[in-house]
Amino acid sequence: MKRILVAVGLLTALTACSPSSEVAPTETIAAESSVVDAAAVIEISVIVGENSGPDRTETVALGSTVRISLLNSGSEDDFHLHGYDVASGEVPAGEEAVIEFVADAAGEFELESHVTGEVLLVITVQ
Ligand SMILES: [Cu+2]
């Protein structure tokens, strides 16, 4: 199952991470299909535990549409991109989640697991 989440709460203040008790303030919209120009989408593939970690960095241009495919190779998890406040929701073991967002704010943003607290990827938008 793939889910595409588009952030609409981009003005939401940065929130500190609290793995199990976080009440998501983020508004998300589940979309059946992407309406963006495929050629303009930056695809990032993450296999959790294989090519993920705090030392993995990806740099994207400001204004890009970024689509992160996350294969959850571990147990059930919940992934979250800080700063943009987009989350995957619960992802069962072995399933893939897609987090998509428009990189309209510059900076460094951590993608992390809310179960382990591990940083999986750092995205630099510049
Ligand atoms: Cu988080």
Automatic annotation (TrEMBL):
PROSITE patterns: PROKAR_LIPOPROTEIN. Gene3D superfamilies: Cupredoxins - blue copper proteins. This is Unannotated protein. It comes from freshwater metagenome.
